[in-house]
Hints:
By secondary structure, the protein is α/β, with parallel strands linked by helices. Helices cover 35% and strands 22% of the residues. The protein contains seven helices and seven strands. It has helices spanning 7-15, 21-32, 51-59, 94-103, 124-136, 139-144, 162-173; strands at 41-45, 68-73, 84-88, 109-114, 146-157, 178-181, 192-198. It has a seven-stranded mixed β-sheet with strand order 3-2-1-4-5-7-6, with helices on both faces. Helix 3 links the parallel strand 1 and strand 2. The longest helix is centred in the middle third of the chain and has 13 residues, at 124-136. It is globular, with a radius of gyration of 16 Å. Residues 1-16 have low confidence and may be disordered.
Amino acid sequence: MYNPYDHYFTKAKKTKFRARSAFKLEEIDNKFHIFDDSVKAVIDVWCSPWSWLQYVYHKYSDKKKHPTIIWFDLKPTSAIGDNVFTYQQDIEQHEEVQALLLKHHIDRADVIISDMAPDTTGDKWTDSLRSVGLIESTLWMYDRILQSNGKFVIKVFMGPGFDELRDTFKSMFGAKNIKVFKPKACRKNSKETYIIGLGRDK
């Protein structure tokens, strides 16, 4: 039975995270080691409601040097701490996005994370196609902005278009570098899963 107030909902409230999705990224990070001391620049695409941004920020809170985090969203944004810069910016506007990154001396990012999702209809096929379509609009970032050894985490809905999207990333980065993983913090009936990139074949 669906329970909106389950363990992860309660845990998010207690730990001050804005959403349970923080624990999904935490589980992915623990398993695949996305965020290490070498990370200098992180891009968060469509990060509302901020929980992934919160996780990354707190991940480095006790470090001497905090990576620069750039957040792009269509919704109004506000910073949550030092070295976090937020922009209300359409990521399909390539030149504008790159100009904003260059303001912070970022040519290539070490990590790109994206928890974005379409407005859902309740129809699994339609929602999956919309999810895949959103991600396809960001493919240029993984090609042109991510470091050659950079990593990424992307949420996507399982369904039509998923296999093709996964294979696109495999062709871009090499099959062995692409993982598909569904964290325990996802609701059991949820169609969401995550495509994870762990570098690029040279």
